[in-house]
């Protein structure tokens, strides 16, 4: 079968931050070469307003854009809107869902990850990963009086603070919130803010936001609903009204050092004749039996049982490797990702991987760790493209410095948060309260850095 593209084409699979960054870097390095970006989604993730805060700290926005905007910026990038049906590594080609075949010289897999759900197939367990799942969550929330959030990562932190008009029970396995991002002192400070009434209005996001629905109206190509979309950007909730059915602003209860033991549907719960707890009206955990009936009940490992309208599983992600495994002998990491070496190469020749789909398996720096975050997706995508270019031209390449020290800038509870591994620093800044915070510190504590 004759290939739709000649050998020598660079192919990148995935329209998320890692894939788009990789394609852009390849387009810069090889302006006369066609760069194919294969994505199942009608929109791609673009890094905008990039700022190099320091040697290791980066700050940027993530925008969803129509693929035509990427093609306009880089004429040698061609976006193929289709999922990958099969990879034949021995023949250096991929087959897409629309029936086409593309031969590659170098291939980079940036297909991201999917939510690691606590319970598969349960209609009351939602995962939030891409635009479609976020909109489904918003739809379900408009009818909800109480939800449970399980997990202690970035999505869980944002949800716990942003959801209004709904009782929120937040179950975490750690002693303190945000254990991955900041230390116990910063967690205590943010917990007090989380449990207090929200006073400030949401900040408006003035940049254009493109949705999947808009893109579908502009294109005749249909994408399957079950495709895994690209990860949400840092301010994914900015365009969503995350409000339940109740009139109050914010009501949250945190259950620490516990995980989900069992999930019961309403009929099953009635048969078991167990008792669920009412939502605590104060923070002293006064135990009262809930007289309300709920669609689903969640039993925690600490013995508590709560009823709710639905549960949000925010317990991490699973690398999206399944479309590429059949017939290919990839080495996989302990977390299920494609193992990559210090040049982002997988175990198969001429195949690279970057972002959430891969597992970094080189001897790491003692102060760097892999986390499936937007910053690392951008860094990996850019570095993978440089490695592909170096291999093509026969040049040596050194490990990028961004893999020497873990650093991440984001925002939680309207506070700018900087997490740096090593001394494990958490930096909380809030423009409206910075002076007040500083005035309460002794001269030795004037720095807004808290050390774990």
Task: Please explain how this structure is put together.
The chain has helices spanning 17-29, 67-73, 131-141, 154-162, 184-195, 212-218, 266-272, 322-325, 374-393, 434-439, and strands spanning 10-13, 35-39, 43-52, 58-66, 77-81, 84-88, 93-96, 101-103, 106-109, 113-115, 125-127, 146-150, 167-171, 251-255, 260-265, 296-300, 305-308, 310-313, 317-319, 338-340, 351-353, 358-360, 407-412, 415-420, 425-429, 449-451. It has 452 residues and is α/β, with parallel strands linked by helices. It has a five-stranded parallel β-sheet with strand order 5-2-1-9-21, with helices on one face. A five-stranded parallel β-sheet has the order 11-18-12-13-14, with helices on one face.
